[in-house]
Amino acid sequence: MKLIEHPDREALTLAVAQDIAESLGMALKTRERAVLCLPGGSTPVPVYKALAPAPLDWGRVVVVPGDERWVAPDHNRSNARLIRRNLIDEGAAAELVPLYTEGLGPDAGAAAASERVAPLLPLSVLLLGMGEDMHTASLFPGAAGLAAALDPSAPPVLAITAPAVPEPRVTLTLPALISATDALLMITGPEKRAALERAASLPVEDAPIRAFLKGLRVHYAK
Ligand SMILES: O=C1O[C@H](COP(=O)(O)O)[C@@H](O)[C@H](O)[C@H]1O
């Protein structure tokens, strides 16, 4: 893992947007379409707005959320909605492949999402977020379904139920996420930085971010 510390959150935002744009540009040189996997949550929102005007052939980019809360696409906790509003509606004319399917529950919905995500693999560029509990995507420590999602033979998407989160989730699984040609993590605040340092010495079941540390570029600002 390579930690890149930025002087403030504005510098972090610009650096992460530039890093993703460069990585996508490289991917578009060798693939007909590049697949960009993005987190939800609050941390990446300014990055999506900064990335939207990047001069990329967005029509050849497919965006997929790394995880989803099992809520309707217009719900304010929907990760797809967050990505659509802050990246695609801001000018990045990429195709968004959602993980949520109307009318299905999380288990059947994860199976349906797996069929949509499988043809997109390997991912070209993966941006990860992380919680202070060391979860990434919706790979939460202590979650029902975590062992299955960490299994190397897992399907691309599985349902997961974590204690202390308000709704069921679906998540890209470890094999789908680590298929990425290029991966970066963005974190803010000393609590997340300390959690990331702790993760390196914990079992992956207690600190799922640990599964991604090898070769990861970590962008950080206080
Ligand atoms: O619940 C989630 O949390 C993580 C971290 O979110 P943040 O608000 O602390 O930035 C996020 O990466 C994940 O996609 C999201 O569903």
UniProtKB/TrEMBL annotation:
Q: Which EC class is the enzyme in?
A: hydrolase
Q: Does the keyword Hydrolase apply?
A: yes
Enzyme Commission (EC) number: 3.1.1.31
Q: In which pathway does it act?
A: Carbohydrate degradation; pentose phosphate pathway; D-ribulose 5-phosphate from D-glucose 6-phosphate (oxidative stage): step 2/3
Q: Which terms are listed as keywords in the entry?
A: Hydrolase
- All copies of domain Glucosamine/galactosamine-6-phosphate isomerase, residue ranges: 7-213
Coiled coil (residue ranges): none
Which GO MF terms are attached to this record? 6-phosphogluconolactonase activity
Q: Which Pfam families match?
A: Glucosamine_iso
Which Gene3D superfamilies does the record cross-reference, listed alphabetically? 3.40.50.1360
Q: Which GO terms describe its biological process?
A: carbohydrate metabolic process; pentose-phosphate shunt
- The reaction(s) this protein catalyses: 6-phospho-D-glucono-1,5-lactone + H2O = 6-phospho-D-gluconate + H(+)
Instruction: Please give the function described in this protein's UniProt entry.
Output: Hydrolysis of 6-phosphogluconolactone to 6-phosphogluconate.
Identify its protein family.
Belongs to the glucosamine/galactosamine-6-phosphate isomerase family. 6-phosphogluconolactonase subfamily.
- Report what the protein is called: 6-phosphogluconolactonase
Q: Which organism is it from?
A: Paracoccus alkenifer
Q: Which gene encodes it?
A: pgl
